[in-house]
């Protein structure tokens, strides 16, 4: 690599100018030098001062000449690790006005497909859909998970090879009734699209939450195409509470009487208290999930310990507590999860609060004593080989994140692991 900041004429000109300036400096100092020689020739102190001044002057002149000559140095080619960071020939700075720096944001800057287009429109086929669910009116704690899809997408920008930046500005404010009805409809539309290259004919979907209530819509869609599924539920809470116990309040502590349609074509039925702590109970009642489901990372207090546990078993779940990872290790947790779901179709739901707040503070119902990001990613990677037909990452509330954005970065990496599970194991109907 040749350091050539100036052309030859400029170097010569600069060199001559520097030599001239150095010569002028010497001429300027000559009268002072003569004065010191004539008046202080017998003083040792002044002799030392005189010699020091001349030495500094010589060093300055040498430095100027060296800097001129340094521009002509030819360095050996870089090798080893350094060679990986050479700017390629023809490289240009990215255009910040290009679509990858503005406009509609997608996960990891993947191509945007109008998957909700009406029938008759030419829609490009796809195998895995990443669907945002900006919804949090089903929470019982602090809201903010509606910004989860935006945060997860923001955290995923670094996954793209070009590490582009873009802006996602959509804000959707829905009631629980409207939100869940719309999400169910959207999930059905996405799942009905043809696949591009996968083994099956039904595309699989990963939902970016949004609060955990959004999983109910995804489970309805998955069940309609794949039949009842086994749920692997990563969370600090059970989320199988009976609506009569934890169903009378939604975000804002207002009584939640919501209308939900199990299928868009069916008539609406009345439900009380659908929220992010009761959706799995309702999913069980609707026959969406199997009795081979499992929680992992549970550690939050219960409303009625004995009653909650009995109800959880009735809903078809087994519990792996957060601290059991210390006893069994990551490999032991993976073994228990696989044994529980066996060879059934699997839906993986990840509530970001399964992680300890030290790793993921940006959530509405944080619970201390959770797993580390590394532990969760290791468990997810160990689930390779399961027939994963759908997944989600929910309860990400970026407004509560730290300066390092550790929550959205973790969420983005979790989504990447879920995509890997789907890609590695195609699923057929």
TrEMBL record:
Annotated PROSITE patterns: ARGINASE_1, ARGINASE_2
UniProt keyword terms in alphabetical order: Hydrolase, Metal-binding
MF term (GO), any: agmatinase activity
Gene3D superfamilies: Ureohydrolase domain
UniProt cross-references to SUPFAM superfamilies, sorted A to Z: Arginase/deacetylase (SSF52768)
Membrane spanning residue stretches: none
Family from the record: Belongs to the arginase family.
A Pfam family: Arginase
Keyword hit for Transport: no
Top-level taxon in the UniProt lineage: Eukaryota
Protein name: Agmatinase
Organism of derivation: Leptosphaeria maculans (strain JN3 / isolate v23.1.3 / race Av1-4-5-6-7-8)
GO annotation terms (biological process): putrescine biosynthetic process from arginine, via agmatine
